[in-house]
């Protein structure tokens, strides 16, 4: 979106996240105070004025104009400031996932159980956030409801934002911290990959999945695999080769949680499902 | 014929499977042990009959040319052979069901080695962006949706 009218911009302090220097500017200074609420998990302060990515927020509350865009592309339009910030947060997280150079982002719900990661790959609307919440309730440590962030060794780093759940036409946020639930702090290896989705009236009957097919599923859910497939496949191979993978549709998430935690506890390929 | 494997691909070898990524089509394939072995023999100098003769020692399957032909069919559909090889292959391939039946008679381990390729298409960067935030449905909070992406098994 070309900015043809000269505007006065107010600059927010930038952040450094996953190898990216991200800046924010707005047409109203009071908006800047709310920018930190959308910062991604794992952000660090960044004081320089050179950015890899810069978001611009054009706000005119009198004219009900709430627009954000990334370097004159990817315009976000909202009817209010809160809605704009929510959309911006989502856009920011996905932009980081697409551009991050230090880590590989896989669409997945992620928790930890007894020092090993349970990874539930899947895109939006597959039910992974609901399953993550149930696992947290059962005592698992929360890592993320959106991304498994893998490093070069295949370890998973936390990307812990509040779990976002759809409830009818609205969304509710479940913050594990507010419920006294633990959140991951250190990277951990993957122990169990759960390939599943919510299917009404289905029966949970997990079958083992080979490392190769588990790798394919991870690849299918990896955000930026096309940009560096050789490196990413190497990392995914490390993950798939050292973990157990199962596949089954599921109905109620709460009904399969104990089975998943038991599977994760006994991570031996000879164990019957 | 002397089948030839396509080059310029990214390969990761697992103990019993081969992962192949085509950076031009952005498709990723998982070749099972049998197809991976046959693909490795596609050097342009080895005939189908010669590949078949190697099956017992290398894979533990009988020297059945239909096994090789079916594997070549899988490789052809996944476009992991050169264009010339694909065109040279006959359009009719052995019955997968019939071959499965024959291998089943030899035991479960042989049946598990029936040539097979699974394929997915790697997402483009924008494809993985979620729709409206969150998932789940209803007061119980259990989600509804479907896993996306082209996932096919030959």
List the SSEs and their pairings.
The complex is a heterodimer of chains A (273) and B (154).
Chain A: E1 10-17, E2 20-26, H1 29-32, E3 44-46, E4 53-60, E5 65-70, E6 73-78, H2 81-99, E7 104-113, E8 116-121, H3 128-137, E9 141-144, E10 147-150, E11 156-157, E12 163-167, E13 170-174, E14 190-195, E15 207-208, H4 211-220, H5 229-241, E16 244-247, H6 257-265
Parallel strand pairs in A: 2-4, 8-14, 14-16
Antiparallel strand pairs in A: 1-2, 1-3, 4-5, 5-6, 7-8, 7-9, 7-10, 10-11, 12-13, 15-16
Chain B: E1 10-13, E2 18-22, E3 27-31, H1 33-41, H2 48-58, H3 65-77, H4 83-88, H5 96-104, H6 108-111, E4 117-121, E5 151-153
Antiparallel strand pairs in B: 1-2, 2-3, 3-4, 4-5
Helix pairs in contact in B: 1-3, 2-3
Structural write-up:
The complex is a heterodimer of chains A (273) and B (154). Chain A is of the alpha+beta class and 273 residues long. Helices cover 24% and strands 32% of the residues of chain A. Chain A has helices at 29-32, 81-99, 128-137, 211-220, 229-241, 257-265, and strands spanning 10-17, 20-26, 44-46, 53-60, 65-70, 73-78, 104-113, 116-121, 141-144, 147-150, 156-157, 163-167, 170-174, 190-195, 207-208, 244-247. In chain A, a hairpin with a 2-residue loop joins β7 and β8. In chain A, α4 packs across α5 (229-241). The longest helix of chain A is centred in the first third of the chain and has 19 residues, at 81-99. Chain B is built from 6 helices and 5 strands, in the order βββααααααββ. Chain B starts with 9 loop residues before the first strand and ends with a strand. The chains are: A alpha+beta (273), B alpha+beta (154). At the A-B interface, α2, α3, β12, α4 and α5 of A face β2, β3 and β4 of B.
